[in-house]
Structure formats: C-alpha cells, structure tokens
Amino acid sequence: xxxxxxxxxxxxxxxxxxxxxxxxxxxxxxxxxxxxxxxxxxxxxxxxxxxxxxxxxxxxxxxxxxxxxxxxxxxxxxxxxxxxxxxxxxxxx
Length: 93
What we know:
By secondary structure, the protein is of the alpha+beta class. The chain is 15% helix and 13% strand.
C-alpha cells in the first residue's frame, strides 16, 4: 500500500488499511553508519532507509546486511601446507 506517514506517496509493505503497522506507526531515521548507503532517501528533511523501518536494529549486532556502503572482503581460506612436502618440493628445484 501507499505510505501516508513518513514516505508519503511511496509503496510501503508495512501499510495496512488501518494505517502503518510498524511500532508506533512511523519509521525511524537513519543513523551514522548508514551515511553513504544507496538505500537511504531523504523525506521531509530527514533521511530514511528504504529497506527497513528501523536501521538501528540492523546495526545492533554488527554490520547491516543490506548496507551498500560496506565492502566485505572475501575470506580466503589459507591452505595448510605440509612442511615435509614443502621441503621436498623446494629441494627438487
């Protein structure tokens, strides 16, 4: 349904026929770590997240899984090298 509270005129999954079904009936503003994310949009002179109604809860236990401003490095598994085989390989050269 179309939001009638904060994001007026935008599609919102939390809107019902009775109004906003989110806690308190209004979305929360973004917080400091959200700055630079592509999912933030300015409505009525405040910044809000388009993906979740309460960004503070997404950042509660670490990084937000929806944040586009965080680059997560791929964890390369370091291969365990057998020291005996490594010494044999180096002696062949």
